[in-house]
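pasting for the record
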Amino acid sequence: MRNRLPFFIIVIAITIGLNAYIGWHVYALLTYWFGEGFPSLLYWIVFWIIALSYMIAAFGARMLPKGIAQPLKIIGSYWFAFMEYGLMLLLLTDVAIGLCRLASVSPQSYIPVLGWVNLAAMALILARGTYNARTPVVRQYELTIPKPAGEWKELRIAVASDLHLGLTVGNRHLRKLVSGVNAMKPDLILLPGDVIDDSIHPFIRNRMGETMKGLQAPLGVYAVLGNHEYIGGHIQAYVEQMEQIGIRVLMDEVVHLAERLYLVGRKDKAAEQFGGGRKPLVSLMADVDLTQPVIVLDHQPYQLDKAAEAGADVMLSGHTHRGQMAPNHLITKKLFELDWGYLRKGNLHAIVSSGFGTWGPPIRLGSRSEWIALTLHFTSETEKGR
């Protein structure tokens, strides 16, 4: 924790500095509109409570009443979007102000115009972002695995990562997944991590398990841990909740489905930081018969080459959200070999989903909430030779 303290201090200092930049611009506009009678002290008190609400809720979770901490976390979640796009808009605004001054344009002419333009742009951004987050799409993939799977010629699999069920993503959004997946009538349902958003308490309090129980498939529903399950620190409670509704959470475990296909569920990479560690994939697959199809569930899409070397046929991941809000996707593209979509790596078919839910604000730009309809076709040695 001591080693991380300088990092936290730097992050907090940058956050305060960026918010001060936004706050000053908003203050300048409001004082222009309302004149000298504008309550400056009240404004700054309210502004900083809103701007730092997520931090206040996070660090004061044990001391603040739930009736205060939870609204602060929700407000803070939305503020992340307002802060990111507010910064971009205000930087452009400052450039426009500079040009207006060079052209000797009166402040009384450009201040109200730029103010309304910014407000309209922010409203459009948030509206579109909310639509993208709350209106999920289905991504369809069809893959051929050159291995026999008994009598199975194909397998229909529904995949939904990063549900982030909690304060901002709840039963209403979850019902869309349940109805959409069940309409597909999949043979198998897979949840590659981050089913809950840190804390297990909203999941239990709002009875989201009763909604998730509606997910049904003949071969069952399986999940793995994501980094947010580790961050929340309620892994045992989460696993118990999943077991109660018939969902098995695989933690460095292998399941042989109908003696025809292997499902390998890895602990999340976060286990290396939060204690316990996780098994190397090659060790986890030591007793797997590689003549049969192998699907690996690994929340974070790292080390695709090792999955290919281990003999996995399909690797399903999430975690990246495809940046969730553009231009963050430029960062995830740099961090991951595959941050979204499909990639063939040797004999491995890797698929990374942008996720069904959202972290922080329920806002998406440059990405969509999604779940995956994956169809696997199997071929025998005889069929391959034809």
